[in-house]
């Protein structure tokens, strides 16, 4: 029950961080858009062509969020879930990670992003790639894999603290 409450809080915080920024300026999140849309944005001169999908600032922002996640979750799981072993810290944090990841993929990406005209970038509005569900599911699978080392770190911290 505690994990479900923590997951709902995580979903709320994730939504508060992502949705308003994307609504205000969809180009802020363009690194998370399907490749064809990013290419069209380059062609339209809306973003610079770059070798990497994410800018240095994107990587720093996401890396910082990941580090905050590790330390905050280790603390929360230790205090509220009684996680005092590696396994319990890892298990609970990965379960919460998966719930938020699936919420992101299914609700935010496949339902909201794929159907909302408010996240469309001017000049790309009619592109079919906005409804590329497979892209979002693949990204979710990558997110699940990225969660493993983060949650392993949470497990280690809960065992150490």
UniProtKB/TrEMBL annotation:
Keywords: Membrane, Transmembrane, Transmembrane helix
Top-level lineage group: Bacteria
Transmembrane segments: 6-23, 59-76, 96-114, 135-160
Protein name: Nitroreductase
Organism, scientific name: Catenibacillus scindens
């Amino acid at each position: 029950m505690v994990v479900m409450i923590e997951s709902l809080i995580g979903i709320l915080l994730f939504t508060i961080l992502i949705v308003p920024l994307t609504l205000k300026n969809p180009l802020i999140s363009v690194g998370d858009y399907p490749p064809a849309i990013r290419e069209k944005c380059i062609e339209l001169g809306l973003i610079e062509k770059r070798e990497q999908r994410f800018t240095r600032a994107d990587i720093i922002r996401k890396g910082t969020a990941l580090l905050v996640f590790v330390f905050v979750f280790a603390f929360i799981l230790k205090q509220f879930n009684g996680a005092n072993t590696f396994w319990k810290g890892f298990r609970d944090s990965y379960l919460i990670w998966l719930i938020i990841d699936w919420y992101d993929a299914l609700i935010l990406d496949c339902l909201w992003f794929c159907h909302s005209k408010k996240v469309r970038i001017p000049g790309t509005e009619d592109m079919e790639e906005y409804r590329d569900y497979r892209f979002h599911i693949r990204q979710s699978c990558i997110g699940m894999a990225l969660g493993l080392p983060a949650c392993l770190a949470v497990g280690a911290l809960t065992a150490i603290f």
